[in-house]
From TrEMBL:
The keyword Iron does not apply. GO terms for molecular function: glutaminase activity; pyridoxal 5'-phosphate synthase (glutamine hydrolysing) activity. InterPro entries: Class_I_gatase-like, PdxT/SNO, PdxT/SNO_CS. It comes from the Bacteria. The active site is at residues 62, 152, 154. This is Pyridoxal 5'-phosphate synthase, glutaminase subunit Pdx2. The lineage of its organism: Bacteria, Bacillati, Actinomycetota, Actinomycetes, Bifidobacteriales. Belongs to the glutaminase PdxT/SNO family. One of its GO terms (cellular component) is glutaminase complex. It catalyses: L-glutamine + H2O = L-glutamate + NH4(+); aldehydo-D-ribose 5-phosphate + D-glyceraldehyde 3-phosphate + L-glutamine = pyridoxal 5'-phosphate + L-glutamate + phosphate + 3 H2O + H(+).
Length: 168
């Protein structure tokens, strides 16, 4: 999706990959506990946290939102903890609880949203702002250079969230 918008994309899989030049970070969906474990084992947590804290734009989707969250309900192990939200993991249930809808997103209007074993944001801290809700649950928030979504914007053809991220 980002390449479609003209961005150069690289993958960060090991600490040595951090030596490459990059000016934005996407934390994708997947299994957040596995991602946190790998980021820690690869000694990437602190260098990336520092980049985020210093203003590097970051987009966290689904598990990426969980990695950014300051708090995760029922979890003692945290990721970056840079986005002032509390997240509830698997809030919409397991695989069978996956769904698709359209909802308003900030000033972008209605956008398509695909949720897969998705979390939601149980609480938005005073440093963050709500960007989108679905059925009364917060599903996207922003704090300065950070955008976190409970859904997967990359699974739909709509590029507005990715463009918003590139414009940060």
């Amino acid at each position: 999706m980002l390449e479609k918008l003209g961005a150069r994309v690289i993958e960060l899989r090991q600490a040595r990959d951090l030596e490459q030049s990059f000016d934005r970070l996407v934390l994708p969906g997947g299994e957040s506990t596995v991602q946190t474990k790998l980021i820690r084992e690869q000694n990437m947590l602190e260098p990336l946290r520092e980049k985020i804290a210093n203003g590097m734009p970051v987009l966290g989707t689904c598990a990426g939102l969980i990695l950014l969250a300051k708090n995760v309900e029922g979890n003692e192990v945290s990721g970056f903890g840079t986005l002032d939200v509390t997240v509830k993991r698997n809030a919409y249930g397991r695989q069978l609880g996956s769904f698709h809808c359209n909802s308003e997103f900030g000033n972008l209007g209605a956008i398509p949203m695909t949720f897969i074993r998705a979390p939601y944001i149980a609480q938005v801290g005073q440093n963050a702002e709500t960007l989108a809700t679905v059925d009364g649950n917060v599903v996207a928030a922003r704090q300065g250079n950070q955008i976190g979504t409970a859904f997967h914007p990359e699974l739909d053809e709509d590029t507005r969230i990715h463009q918003l991220f590139l414009d940060l």
